[in-house]
Amino acid sequence: MIILDKNTKCAVQGVTGKQGSFHTEQMIKYGTNIVAGTSPGKGGQEIDGVPIYNSIAEIKEDVDVNASIIFVPAPFAKDAAFEAISQLDLAVIITEHIPVHDAMEIVAYAEKNDTTLIGPNTPGVISPGVGKLGIMPTHIFRPGNIGIVSRSGTLTYEVASQITNAGMGQSTCLGIGGDPVVGMNFSSVLQRFEEDENTDFMVMIGEIGGTAEEKAATFIAENIKKPVIAYIAGVTAPPGKRMGHAGAIIDGESGTAASKIKALESAGVTVAKRPSEIAGIIKDMI
Predict the structure, then answer these.
(1) Is the pLDDT score of 254 beyond 80?
(2) Domains annotated on the chain, with CATH
(3) Whole-prediction pTM
(4) Which residues are marked as active site?
């Protein structure tokens, strides 16, 4: 497993909102150590047994906390992210529709503070049997030795479910987010999987748009020894049309599925033609 362990003590920013309160309950049920929540003006209350504070700084006066998951609406997400990044080791931003300029500032601030940043627009991270900081359905995951990193939440669920149904399991599944600008990228997650003694195989789920997969291919060729299996979504997408995610748009020759597949195969990565093939490819490797 990576990112999450039993020492992760997490605050939920935006804990009293509809999404924040629902997913806080789900994360606690899964065994995640949620120690507090923030909701400005509601300090002193509690929800599902979780104490609410007005700020991260207030939490830190009372409780040991080192991570945050952010459900704050997009117009206020940058402030929440800066608050978390300035004081904690890990920030997971679930929020969608954060303006690109805000995301650029958030990512730069995280790099400056050496804070691990996942997202924005991510389903989060789950280490089966340990906990989750995210919104993924837990019943499709089981502990195992396959690490999954993805730009797409729904494809993460599909592939994880097929791996589970094939009698295998996952070490950690992490969604880097579907926006053009995100914190952790494929390369940084793959490096953590490479160093993780619980991960023997890596699955990388990419999609059209941007150059993240091509950069990952170069990184894999130079740094990764463990087997990597990839899938690229959007093979049939027409140029100039955005497919689902804000980052999934082809501009000219760059960002096409063909260019990504070619780069990955050149780096020694096995590229599946369909998500349903991934579990079988890993079984054959075993």
Answers:
(1) no
(2) 10-118 (3.40.50.720), 139-285 (3.40.50.261)
(3) 0.95
(4) 245
